[in-house]
Amino acid sequence: MRTPRRLALAAAALALPVLAVPSLAGPHGTVGGDQLAARGLIAPAGAPALPATSAAGWLVADLDTGEVLAARDPHGRYAPASTLKTLTAETLIPKLDRRAMVQPTFDDVNVEGSKVGLVDTMRYPVDELFRSMLVVSGNDAALALATANGGLPKTVTEMNAEAARLQANDTHAVNDNGLDAPGQTSSAYDLALIARAGMQLADFRDYVKTKRAHIRGARPGTAIAISSHDKLLWNYEGAIGIKNGYTVAAKATFVGAATRGGHTLVVTLMRTNPRYWPEAAGLLDWGFKAESAGVTPVGQLVEPLEAAPGSQPAAVPEAAGVQAQRVARTASASSGSGFPVLPAGVVGAGVVVMALGFGRSRRGSRGKLKLPPL
To answer: Which residues are catalytic?
Structure first.
């Protein structure tokens, strides 16, 4: 594994004067705070030219090592739309028996936005609900999963506790389906954290890579055919899925991952064009070139915190046969509180390209977190 190392500041700005920007690595508890939000473009010096993108915030990272290769406004807080469902899934998959049967409520099946077509007179296996939520972004399926978990308030509380454990500090859930709601936010950085945690779960990986599937229909013996809304999954060599989203207020949001040449990368886009997938493909292409060129990462996705006793709601008891809890995670190391964060850089209306150093207090003990086989 290449270990990110402290570098001298090097910046260039499209023939505009360059302003020196100090490193803003700060206390762990302030990761993602507004004062640390990087509004400019952050990329390693000497890297291949980055493709154009309309996204207000984006990030490319190595999903195995957590090394951030480049980003723009990575901690900017935006409405997540249906990419929030990745947090719903990452939170609930370890809690719910995939074979359990769930009868959605009237409110579940009559939710606004995209639906898979659940009816409140039927019972559905949890497995089909997760697949419907992640493959076709069924808001009805998301709410039915909350019903299976004891209700929406409980589920949202657990989602926010899980976001805090992952140190996704830009993320606040108000519902579990991503429909716009006051105060509901995430960031390009946080979506990468959540995706990295989710991809450690075998069921999560299986759901998000699904192109086509069927769920039971309203009448006996019938089935509803579903196909993935993730355009990258259909159009990009090596794509292994994750999740797209769209609302009028949020615009398009996207989390995608792909594997090539022994590397697995994740790309996140927030507030971008509805035809997002060419932008995502371009950033992934750049990321694979940058990895091959051995560029120095500009940051690191933080590791999850160890849960403190009593800090989270009690988990729903697991039924026999339910998937084991998440794979072992790297424990937080050292007594220091500093941790590398993506620094801010703004130069007028110009684009800043920089290589920046970061604090190393916890870096030495971090091992490579290899994704399990797909």
So the answer is: 82, 85, 137
